[in-house]
Prior knowledge:
Layout: E1 4-9, H1 14-18, H2 31-43, E2 51-55, H3 58-68, E3 75-77, H4 108-125, E4 130-135, H5 137-148, E5 163-167
Parallel strand pairs: 1-4, 2-3, 2-4
Antiparallel strand pairs: 1-5
Amino acid sequence: MKTTLYLTRHGETVDNARQLMQGQTQGQLNDVGVEQAEQLRERLAGTHFDAYVASDLKRAIDTARILAGPQQPIDTTPLLRERDWGSFTGRYIPDLKGEVWPDDIETLDDLLARAGRFLDFVRTRYQGKTVLAVGHGIVNKAIQAVYYGKQMRDVERMANCEVRILEL
């Protein structure tokens, strides 16, 4: 039985707009992010979802709530959390170019392993269902890299509230 995963990124946040590295901080949708989520809800209005899943970070949960509506349950999982950027968290992203990465950043191998566990989680828990999952830019990229058997650099960046469909 085929499982269909609609993978999306949360709406724009205050820190996205400020170009700050959010990592695993909760984050807060800004007005643009709320609007993006509302527009996505309208675009997906004709699609039936059996389940809604979100990262356990506030910005993803808030986006999922807009997409699902007030009555639908939302399952949360730390498997969908953004990459842990360690001491880069909270820093201005343009300033990080060329800096040596500190040892406290989640390794690429660990991120990809977590992405694989997320795909296994969806396949197992939602077998034969259509699922909308709200994650984050880098973890969504890792999920697609695992799914397609590609390098992270070969997966195109996802915009806020962009959707990619994966057949599991």
